[in-house]
Amino acid sequence: MYSHDNNNKTYYILHIMNHVKIFSKILVKIRRITLFQLLWIILVIIIFTLWMWNSETVEENKHNPVILWWTASFPGTSETRYCSNDIKCDVFSNRNISDLYNVEANLFYASNIKFDDLPLPRRPKEVIWGLYHEESPRNVEEMMHEDVLSLFNYSSTFSRFSDVPFPLQYLNSFEDINNMKYFVPTLEKNKYLNEISPVMYLQSDCETSTERDIYVKELMKYINIDSYGICLNNKKLPNKFTEDYLNKLHDDDFLHFIARYKFVIAIENGICYDYVTEKFWRAIKVGTVPIYFGSPLIKDWYPNNKSAILLKDYPTPKMMSNYITKLMNDDTLYESYLEHKIKRLVTNAKLLDEIKTRPYQIDALKSATEFECYVCEKLHERRNGKFEQSIVNKNHYDCPKPLSALTLEVNPLNSWAYSFETAKQNAASIRKKIMTVD
């Protein structure tokens, strides 16, 4: 929260106590006061005190640029943000402050954005708009289109081309990559095949733009798969995981449970450049081989040259099953996908550099703070006469029309392909409406 001089705090406390004493004396004299009247008097005191406090705060902090998170809930910042190079900004999450301050930047958490509730008129030369978005496009489909993206000046997303990127948001730490805590050696995994299938599929969302259930159902024709969750379920989770299992996916017991499998199907619910979720990183963490479909740039984040099996390399379920069978019969070939565990080796310089350069990205709140400071720096540059015409483009959140995991092409009958076009029209309408408001 904002810092205040101790003398000012003492003054206000004494000031409030004085008001309370005065009103107490009045109440003593008024014998027939009602409860409603009493509550009304207390409310007046509170409002008056808050008004005086806010007035003093405005006076004390009016020299700092003001940033407002227009959307609700996340990240909930309300403090002076101290950033590098000795700059600072006052960051709020309460819209009411716009009556007290000159807001110079509005930030938006995309998952909570409402396009019919925006701070209009846009005034791009006076007020910066910043976009923070870590989720897949299914939450706000209009964000897949440049008509909406270009309403913003700066972004913080999972894309490496964002102003404050966090492509490794689901990798908790470098240690997760080569830590042996959950790893099950290949010979032991082979013994488990008497109890479980070689492949595990875990899901909770049955209707995805990538049609992953359709793919897995076809793959099941050729190879045994243990499918847990509510979709394509053919095996029950142990009792200790059944209750609220979605909140146990990172528990030690559950990770040990997954680690017994030789392969895990990791198909994202959206195809976006650099959108890589826990589906991939959880497999890397426990030491099982992910069968992956998602970000076209996934190889940039492999620990080593071979760390996953991609659907595009074995583009039909039959071809994939043949390759899995080959790995099942060749432990040496199988273990070539697990060098980050068996040899404790990470050779991908790009991954190592990303971890070192942007340590903030493993924590959503730290990423938001980094973004706040980035925007804060831009505000100070503006005040110093440096005006940068920056507009977010498609590269900042690159999510093309969804592809089917089964065909690796757009399925025109997929409802998500239809909604992509609908969202495109909506995005154009939203932009037109916003840019024509005076």
Automatic annotation (TrEMBL):
GO terms for molecular function: alpha-(1->3)-fucosyltransferase activity. The keyword Glycosyltransferase applies. InterPro entries: Glyco_tran_10_C, Glyco_tran_10_N, Glyco_trans_10, GT10-like_C_sf. The chain crosses the membrane at residues 33-53. Residues 199-386 form the Fucosyltransferase C-terminal domain. Pathway: Protein modification; protein glycosylation. Residues 63-167 form the Fucosyltransferase N-terminal domain. Gene3D superfamilies: Glycosyl transferase family 10, C-terminal domain. GO terms for cellular component: Golgi cisterna membrane. Pfam families: Glyco_tran_10_N, Glyco_transf_10. Keywords: Glycoprotein, Glycosyltransferase, Golgi apparatus, Membrane, Signal-anchor, Transferase, Transmembrane, Transmembrane helix. It comes from the Eukaryota. It is found in: Golgi apparatus, Golgi stack membrane. The keyword Nucleotidyltransferase does not apply. Its EC number is 2.4.1.-. It is a single-pass type II membrane protein. Belongs to the glycosyltransferase 10 family. This is Fucosyltransferase. It comes from Papilio xuthus (Asian swallowtail butterfly). The lineage of its organism: Eukaryota, Metazoa, Ecdysozoa, Arthropoda, Hexapoda.
